[in-house]
Amino acid sequence: MTIAPRKLSLAEWDDRYDQLVRAGLKEPGYGGPLRRHVVKESDLRLQHLRFDNSAAALRLWNFLLTENERLHQARARGDKIVGTMKDLGTVPVMAYSLPGVRAFYPDGAWWTPCLMECSDHLLQQAEALGIDASFCPVRAMLPAFLNGEHFPRPDLLICSTGAVCDDFSAIAQRLETLGHSILWWEMPRRRQPDPREASCALPGNLLAPQVQVDWVREELQRVAQSLGELAGQPLDDNTLTDGIRKANEVRHLLQALRTTVYSAPGAPLPALEMLVAEMLAIHFCSDRAETVAVLGELLAEAEKRVQQKQFIIDVDAVRIFWVNPVADLRAMNLLEDWGGRVCGSDYMFTHALDLIPENLPPLEALARTALADPMVGSTAERAARIVRECRDFHVEAVVVSRIPGASHCAREGAIIREAVQKALGLPTIELEIPPVCDAMLPTLGSRVQALIETARARRKS
Amino acid sequence: MKVFYSSPWVPVEWIEAHGLQPCGVWFAEDLGCGVLPLSAGVCAFSEAVLRFAETHHDSAVIFTTACDQMRRSFDAFTGSQPVRAFLFNLPATWQSPVALRIFRTEVERLGRFLQVHGGHAPTAKDLAQIIERRSQSRKCLLELAPRCSARQYAEAIARFHWDGSVCVPDHPPSPSSRAIPLAIVGGPLTASQWGLLDLIEAAGTRIVLNATESGERSLLPPFRLEGFSDDPIGAVARGYFENCADVFQRPNTRLYSWLVERLIARGVRGIVLWVHTGCDLWRAEAQTLRETFRLPVLLLEADEVPGGSPREANRIQAFVETFK
Fold it and tell me: Nearest-CA distance from A343 to chain B in Å?
């Protein structure tokens, strides 16, 4: 039975779930109705979100929302758990190359206050630990480590440092001071090669001095050594090569999904589900094989809808490029309610979407990919990629979404907006999205609507 | 040509050996004066350095990667004036060989930048002399601390960073034996903010340790010079790399080791934590400082009133009262 794409509330999903089950829905072990996450995990925010009505989206949400539970199960089975912080996409490729090792980002706890509508009190607990509201909501990670109510305590903690956000670096340091030992590895600030300096190409059309790649490779070798010791088997080139190939499987799927959705005349999948799907790239939501299955289903659903010209967001919606992830997932719903659709994104980990070169020694390939992180280079380089993607996906306006308290947000918005305006003449705005944005809806709404009206007016002219 | 630098971990001996004049921005009278048009989250010091750089057209400016804010100020600056700015990559880690190599490579790269801007290739002999002279100056400055008011001392160190000279104050104060010994710890304290030190001491205290970025912490111990003639750049790099103690380092234990030795030796009874608006790195240390040293910590945030606002004065007086 073909059902037209539609966004459903949680209540509507109860009926839809029954309908799917009656129609013979086959689910993985973590499957079930979405409502149980509200009842069991107090993920209250789900009551205010609207979800895609496909079985593929159901699987995506269940996959996302059971991550902590699956990590605890993995620990109980004897798997080693690695907490990797800040690099967003590199260390997990190494960790998942080893049998019996799972890596996750404690950074991901930054969405917990949103999902639980702050009923978890993590932000208040962070404040009691000395990290107040002047820091990014990723501060929720700190009490989550200490109270053990969310993710399991990792067997090994790894954090990239150097060219990273100050707030994150400060919070991670506070974590270590509180007794959680961290393996720090250096990420130099990526720069343009000097004249006559040996250089090499990075994924994402970037260039870096070879010496910087060498440093990162050496640092990753140190990380590999620790991971190997944890796993009880060395992370050798063959093992890592295989891990890279499997990580690229995920990246291939995501590239296809992004191209299908962002280039379609209307949106075959909503922005919220696309945000979650893209997030799977960084650590496979703690299960690499399942990530492939989840993304495969989403891609099939999107392709089917495009073929049938069935869109969840109308072709008239203004095509928006979205910069930075949102602290409140609801913002992605709201953008569509106000007449926009996401047709391009930079959620701070574009390097985790690019294919890792498979024609290089594996650590060299990973070092190049790590160094292509949009947050470790100049904002101008980040902006250049945004401009390219705006062109590719015929974007009509750009939203730079500020993360409250994040050190990079203080300046990058102005630089990105100027670059976009100069290159493409597109209207742009900056928004700040707190973990629960309900109180700011009038302001957010009027700002986004003004942007959308401006973009529509440009169509006429 | 003047080469302005914004972090004490930039090797000034290397700049001077190129025949250029290194000037630490903390002494500049036109740094951060007046109200800065800060947008949300922008660090006031990084903004001040950016504005300062924009107005000194005939000089080179060195930013560092010590913090995300300064790194991005460099981005903002190079958007308009890419040629005369240099971003020195200060590694955050210090326990791996890679970190030292990064530092050394940056010293070499800085040398090439300086030569593009009118500097000449340094000789080992000149460099050795400069290192020796600056080491002596730092030693003098360290000995000077007990004989100055906090403001005089801050000014003396900043002047040294500005032109390499050491000025002994004409009228050193006679500190009251009842003054409460305090430390000031934190980010950069600039010329327009020195009034704050007067304010703190006028409340009945004596600042016995200035551990701000531009204070005593910036006075490196003498470099190890073995093998200097074979590898002078290495000696410069090691001199800075091995002695840097700052909040951006990971782990930050060097900073705490540096502090604990001095806090105990000088009988410090309380800490004033000096934080620029928007500086996450120092703000996050408030609780760790309290827990580690078990001393009262007063967080003072740099605001738009140079040298201390009535609110700051009030907070300082209340803080000092708690010791009486």
Answer: 27
